[in-house]
Amino acid sequence: DAMVIQNPRYQVTQFGKPVTLSCSQTLNHNVMYWYQQKSSQAPKLLFHYYDKDFNNEADTPDNFQSRRPNTSFCFLDIRSPGLGDAAMYLCATSRESGNNEQFFGPGTRLTVL
Amino acid sequence: GNSVTQMEGPVTLSEEAFLTINCTYTATGYPSLFWYVQYPGEGLQLLLKATKADDKGSNKGFEATYRKETTSFHLEKGSVQVSDSAVYFCALSRGNAGGTSYGKLTFGQGTILTVHP
Q: What integer pLDDT is reported at residue A17 of this predicted model?
């Protein structure tokens, strides 16, 4: 089945220690998104890629970076995690055209000690 | 700008009760409307969608009708089950002004639903 996969599902890191979260997709969608979600709140968009074109949200901290080496993979790098960065991180994809439906992965739960 | 307002929760129901979760939106033009569901510890799953006025989205016994005159997309289910316990998000999406038709999702704040046996 075509899907969005996130690894790992649970990640524990130490305060200030860089961490990378991974997302892959078999849907061949050209748009990929990273969201941060805290405590059943609405997901907050951090940035998205349209093909290789990176689009950062204005209020996304510089501590968050992303890489998309090819269509299938996208990475979220947190350079110096703080306690406030503990959250669920969701990856999503969509097609360029159509009704803008986004397909979400299962998420990575990040804990910062 | 675009915004989505959902009925505040949490909502607690007994099994087989009728469910309504209200959702209203503000947007220019004709957005696409979605309901996403999030089960504990999981990502978001699309529950249903509607892309134009008067469309009815339906899935797993849930329904919602795109009402442009009232700018609403209320979620309903005639008989809820314990397994429906989850967080429900209403969302809208519009195409980019830059010419591509993909758009960013604007979410409501989410409604926690708990169904008791």
A: 97
By the CB < 8 Å criterion, does A15 face chain B? no
Q: Is B71 left (phi over 0), alpha (psi -120 to 50) or beta?
A: left
Q: What is the pLDDT of residues B15-54, one digit of tens each?
A: 999 999 999 999 887 889 999 999 988 889 999 999 889 9
* SS3 at position B59: strand
Q: Do A43 and B109 touch (CB under 8 A)?
A: no
Separation CA B64–CA B12 (nearest Å): 20
- As a whole number of angstroms, the distance between CA B77 and CA B110 comes to 17
- Tell me how far apart the alpha carbons of residues A25 and A93 are, in angstroms, rounded to a whole number: 8
Which of 44-63 (A) contact B at CB < 8 A?
A: 45, 48, 50
Q: What percent of chain B has pLDDT over 90?
A: 74
